[in-house]
Amino acid sequence: MPLVLAATPLGDSRDASPRLVTALAAADVIAAEDTRRLRALAAALDVTPGGRVVSFYEDVETARLPKLLESLHAGETVLLVTDAGMPSVSDPGYRLVAACVAEDLPVTCLPGPSAVTTALAVSGLPSDRFCFEGFAPRKNGEKARWFAALASEQRTVVFFESPHRLAATLAEAAEALGERRAAVCRELTKTYEEVRRGTLAELAEWAAGGVRGEITVVLEGARPAAVSVSDLVEEVAARVAAGERLKSAAAEVAGVAGVSRKELYDAVLAARRG
């Protein structure tokens, strides 16, 4: 039988899927990040966990692997749940999944809530391309290198941060990245859900007043460097010298750079005239 990864509600138990309810009742073993939270969720869903419940939080994750793998080899279904959202996404689970893959044991997933995609959807920032960075680094040197890498990242960035470090992280981001837009999503799906949008500096000022709850930050990607037509003339000339027709070379280079094809074509002709 498989390892089953099951997404749990971020805050509102009504977001639980019917498949999660069924899995809680049927699993032989339930590995839970916090067994108390699991039992509270089960009570809210009016379901009684059918199998053995074992704790599976970060500090015991490695130690619990052999017994869970033994259960899977014995044909038992192991259900993995974390406190909120999808297991293994900045939560316990990755090591167990990797171990199952290494031993050719089946792994499946009950999809559901995710703070990453929920925050991205409500942020108002581009969502066609994004990356997830987990929790922001804590140490100053690591955080500085992290911001340096994000300076050229053109995809929208989603990351987690603790409420007591949020103001400092946003202020450092504003200094390192400039006036990028961002959204701070707090307590998603819960009673006091709040989404604050603005520039990094504006959000840092707001957060300095104190923030509570689970925090997900969505950060605008870096804007592509502006390219002028004159910068592209030499590239077109080189392609023509290599045997391409001027019109096709100008059209392709202009399309990639996002500039006017006619303007680039005329600039190349002007450069030829001297």
Structural account:
This protein is α/β, with parallel strands linked by helices and 274 residues long. The protein has three domains: 111 residues, Cobalt-precorrin-4 Transmethylase, domain 1 (3-Layer(aba) Sandwich); 104 residues, Tetrapyrrole methylase, C-terminal domain (Methyltransferase, Cobalt-precorrin-4 Transmethylase, Domain 2); 44 residues, no CATH class. It has eleven helices and ten strands. The strands form two sheets. The protein has a five-stranded parallel β-sheet, sandwiched between helices. Strands 6-7-10-8-9 form a five-stranded mixed β-sheet, with helices on both faces. Helix 6 crosses helix 7, helix 7 runs antiparallel to helix 8 and helix 10 packs across helix 11. The model has no long low-confidence stretch (mean pLDDT 94). GO terms for molecular function: rRNA (cytosine-2'-O-)-methyltransferase activity. It catalyses: cytidine(1402) in 16S rRNA + S-adenosyl-L-methionine = 2'-O-methylcytidine(1402) in 16S rRNA + S-adenosyl-L-homocysteine + H(+).
Summed up, what is this model?
This protein has 274 residues and is an alpha/beta fold. It contains 11 helices and 10 strands.
Helix content bin = 40-55%
How many helix segments?
A: 11
Number of domains: 3
Strand order of the largest sheet: 3-2-4-1-5
CATH architecture level-2 label of the largest domain:
3-Layer(aba) Sandwich
Contiguous low-pLDDT stretches (5 residues minimum) are none
Mean pLDDT: 94
How is the CATH topology of the largest domain named?
Cobalt-precorrin-4 Transmethylase, domain 1
Mass-distribution shape: elongated
